[in-house]
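Re-running Nitrate reductase to confirm reproducibility after the cluster update. Everything else is unchanged from the original entry.
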Amino acid sequence: MSDDIREVELSPAVKASDYFNEDLAPTQVSERTWGTGNIAALWVGMAICVPTYTLGGVLTSYFGLSVMEALFTILLANVVVLIPLTLNAFPGTKFGIPFPVVLRSSFGIVGSNIPCLIRGFVACGWFGIQTMFGGLAIHLFLSSISDGWAALGGIGEVIGFFAFGALNVYIVIKGSESIKWLETLAAPLLLIVGIGLIWWASDKVSVTEVLATPANRPEDAGFFSYFFAGLTAMVGFWATLSLNIPDFSRYAKSQKAQVKGQIIGLPLTMFLFAALGVLLTSASTTLVGETVSDPVTLIGHIDSPFFVAIAMLLIIVATLSTNTAANVVSPTNDFQNIAPKYINHTRGVLLTGLVGVLLMSWELLKKLGLIESDVSVESMYSNWLLGYSSLLGPIAGIMIVDYFFIRKQELDVAALYTSSTLYPKVNWAGFIAFLVPVAVTLLAVTADVFTWYYNYGWFTGSISGAVIYYVAANKLLLGAQSHVGNLAKAS
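Result of re-run:
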């Protein structure tokens, strides 16, 4: 593994380009302070969150898997997603450039905005979902110490939502070092949350019985179709980060640090916290008299204000560490990429917060009693995972092929910030490789043909996108070289 780390100095002319601002500029070697431990802590901080806790329940309820099958699926999915995560992190670490700038190579200087916005809007949606959980934790924390606040009900949850969202925005505006500090602080605290929940439920649930829970699919149904649909959805959980991982790897000290940190921090953390969610959801009937699928609501049922207050503080830290890193950093950079001279880091963060609020407005209005809706957050993101993985898969495949096979791990960084012939405004090879898988996916959904292509969306999309891009990019590259040769002969 090469630890070839480049420090790129850009000329004043490049910095004056419409496609450059200081927040999207390559990080210097002195700014690359994240070691293996920091990268691992980043993943522990992002993986221990409310949606991870509910993954086992999503797989057993919506995808017809048994508990053991669900846990195996989660572990395998996170091993699989390590491949695009570590590979797409390479250019960020080598050249110090963020995700939108890496995308300019495969989609074009201006064309990169399309995949950026696709990635950015799904992050804004996740920001809203996580902020809802964080706001609920704030509401329950204040309710545990104040009966007056508890009487606010849904209004208190909405106030908590905006308070938690503002805290996220503040931390990300402060910059990468504040995120690094938060993740390093959060990792051990989040492990304490898991240990505490296990201790609380240890004498109230039989692990053997929970693991023996059978699948709820039809008895004559085959295993593999359910398994691969679930695997696709679980890969889709971090398919977002497999694209914008350069936003973090640009701060890594070396390629070894980013690869080892991700291997140490991601798969086992996801597996253990999802397993904890399965056990506690099964135990919730005994613990509180009803089935509760998220830890915030479950802890809120405990008849101990002190324990609830402490647990909610830790849940707030857990959700904060996930939300800031996974759901605010990427859209902040993505929005900047649209107009770098007009949208800086701070404005990008504020735009992310605004879009996140708008996407969750239906849930906020429901909590205020202004509308009625049967749509649950859990069903929303379980469907979202499968659908969006179909869009994100091709982008991941295109990025990997472009960097490793077309560019041979070499990028002209200065040219990525200017309009040049080396990186055109629109790279049609990237759009062909993206739009063909998307078109097949839409056909599968609307015409009920090639349904397997949609059901296994991330895998089919990433593989087909990679193959199509390799062919299209080579043809366009050969065509461009032939055109240059003809011009040379004519002159």
